[in-house]
Amino acid sequence: MSVRRCCDCSAASGGGLKAGPSGGAAALHAFTLRVGRPVGAMLAQTATSVADALERHGGTTIFEAKLDGARVQIHRAGDQVTVYTRSLDDVTARLPEVVEVALALPVDTLVADGEAIALRPDNRPHVDCEPHDATRRCGVGRFTFA
């Protein structure tokens, strides 16, 4: 489990794979999540039915609506915010609205994983509009993060 946790905490750098051979189990155990180092996406699981989901999770699970947007990971340390895609590309400059949302949160340090969703003027999700395309193609200038 230690190698998997390390890889999840260092998807871009492969740090978990480097820590084990050089420092052994102690290095793997000490490896932690760090702001500014993107991590593997936390992907939801699908099920064929509610009963199927409950059975797979021992009778307890969480359900949420599927909102389509752009999967992003937000890292914040003080006033420095970086936004990564699911493929770990830095898209901070392309999503200034997401940076604004992150800076408005009452925290100094943050690593968040979720969907950036373009909103219509009535604050409802704009279907068929990816956030990176929203201001140009869809006339949307506001985003939310779910």
Summarize the structure.
InterPro entries: ATP-dep_DNA_ligase, DNA_ligase_ATP-dep_cent, DNA_ligase_ATP-dep_CS. By secondary structure, the chain is of the alpha+beta class. It has a domain at 70-145: D-amino Acid Aminotransferase, Chain A, domain 1 (2-Layer Sandwich).
Supply Rg. Answer: 18 Å
Can you tell me the CATH topology of the domain at 70-145? D-amino Acid Aminotransferase, Chain A, domain 1
Distance between the termini: 29 Å
What is the β-strand count?
4
Structural class: alpha+beta
Relative helix content: 25-40%
Low-confidence stretches: 12-20
At the fourth CATH level, what is the homologous superfamily of the domain at 70-145? DNA ligase/mRNA capping enzyme
- Form type: flat
Largest sheet: 4 strands, antiparallel
Helix/strand order: HHHEEHEHE
CATH architecture of the domain at 70-145: 2-Layer Sandwich
Query: What topology, given as strand order, has the largest sheet?
Result: 2-1-3-4
**Number of helical segments with 4 or more residues:** 5
Strand content: 15-25%
Mean pLDDT: 73
InterPro entries: ATP-dep_DNA_ligase (IPR050191), DNA_ligase_ATP-dep_cent (IPR012310), DNA_ligase_ATP-dep_CS (IPR016059)
Protein name: ATP-dependent DNA ligase family profile domain-containing protein
GO molecular function, one term: DNA ligase (ATP) activity
Domain ATP-dependent DNA ligase family profile: 42-127
Question: Strands, helices and their partners?
Answer:
Blueprint: H1 2-8, H2 15-30, H3 50-56, E1 70-77, E2 80-85, H4 96-104, E3 109-119, H5 131-138, E4 142-145
Antiparallel strand pairs: 1-2, 1-3, 3-4
Helix pairs in contact: 1-2
